[in-house]
Amino acid sequence: MSAVRPLAPGDLDQVASLFSATFLNRHAAAGDVVKARLRETYLDDPFNDPDIPALVHVADDGRINGFVGVHVVPYRVDGRPVRAAFCGALMSESEGRDPMVGARLLKAYLAGAQDISISETANVVSQNLWERLHGKVLAGHSLDWLRVLRPAGFALAMASRKLAPLKVFAPLARLADERIAKRRKAASCTGVTGEAPAGPLVREDVNLEDFAALVRRFSDGLAARPDWENGYIEHVLAVGLDKPAFGAPVMMAVRTRSGEPVGGFLYHARPGGIGRVLQVLYAPGRAGIVLDHLFADAHARGVAALRGRSQPEIVEASTRRSMLFLTVSASVVLAKDAALAAPFLNGGCMLNGLAGESWNRFFGGEA
Description:
Layout: E1 3-6, H1 12-23, H2 32-42, E2 55-58, E3 64-77, E4 80-92, H3 101-110, E5 116-122, H4 124-132, E6 136-137, E7 144-148, H5 151-162, H6 170-182, H7 184-187, E8 201-205, H8 208-219, E9 224-226, H9 232-240, E10 248-256, E11 261-269, E12 274-282, H10 287-300, E13 305-309, H11 312-317, E14 324-326, E15 330-335, H12 338-345
Parallel strand pairs: 4-5, 12-13
Antiparallel strand pairs: 1-2, 2-3, 3-4, 3-9, 5-15, 6-15, 7-13, 7-14, 8-10, 10-11, 11-12
Helix pairs in contact: 1-2, 5-6, 8-9
């Protein structure tokens, strides 16, 4: 008889093969990298909770034909410590005979010991399952944004994903972007240079310790945010910086000339490619100017475009910044106590990026 049970070390070979076939389009045996990622994220992470494990679905014949990754985050909601569990990779055999595997796994996950269940990677199918089980979509946190900085470089970066030999045209793309930048009218499609935006603010590189302090500072006033203490923020940042597939990490603070911080950002820069933004921090009303410094910094490093995850303030600030938005996955929430869900539903929360699960090495961890 089929069953759902916690992930065990002996399951890693089968789960890695299932993961590779589902997300990497590889039907051969999974490599050691995938197994290592599964172990470090779902078995060995120091902040895992044995009461809230990742889950496998076992078929009648004993095969593992489904898996849901569960990542535990210590949260504080209105000052109260709560356990939040993020639903990560939800997968089942594409050629399996049991269409209910995904639904059983999601129901078992939602019935876990956590106070709040969240996902920031729900696709259309799993979003429908969440909503049937009374989960709510967080619209302001459910969009991916894109900011083109170098039009020719961006076009080449997209094309070379399908045809890698096209990368030899990178010098031509750089030349085209230089010419575009010299034409004021044409350059308005990006409106970005490597110079610092006009105004009394400056940006500067910071180390892990200083960026951790910024995270604490700019999330402290929110009704719902991760509990960054006991080494949690340091752990998240140390892992999140290591994303070789996305490029070199950049951590910066945006300050007044007297040194008062108004925001900061963490992204991964790949010259000529698409940079991936992991976190944008800002004081109330300052999201726009922090984005301006982010765009200028990435342009100065030769990045062709930036991609990040939405927050309500970023959506609001986008109206004058030529940002594109697309739906890739939804952020959804379900709490056992409705009062715990309120800050997430009304926007008074920190979610996605460092406050979710996209800091882990499944996102950009392999070059």
